[in-house]
Design brief:
The protein has a domain of 52 residues. It has five helices and no strands. It is flat, with a radius of gyration of 17 Å.
Length: 82
């Protein structure tokens, strides 16, 4: 959740985690988020939302190139079925 909030998300999809771990997992996710916020000296979710979005980067073009290169290097082609 933290990564998505840092990128500027207002909503984080957690359905798969809840389906895997049950509804009680909401408490675990919340405690983890609260712990991370506290350990990193922030007061709230609003304080971290968007800190890592492109509006906070001096050279946006360099960020976009780096993201493009990362997408290419992380790409794994699907297995070809014959």
């Amino acid at each position: 959740m933290v990564k998505y909030l840092l990128a500027g998300a207002d909503v984080v999809m957690t359905a798969s985690a809840l389906l895997r771990n049950g509804v009680q997992h909401v408490g675990t996710m919340r405690r983890g988020l609260e712990r991370w916020i506290g350990e990193n000296g922030f007061a709230s979710v609003d304080a971290i939302r968007g800190l890592k979005d492109a509006t906070h980067v001096e050279h946006v073009d360099a960020l976009l190139r780096a993201q493009y290169v990362a997408a290419l290097t992380d790409y794994l082609p699907a297995t070809i079925v014959r």
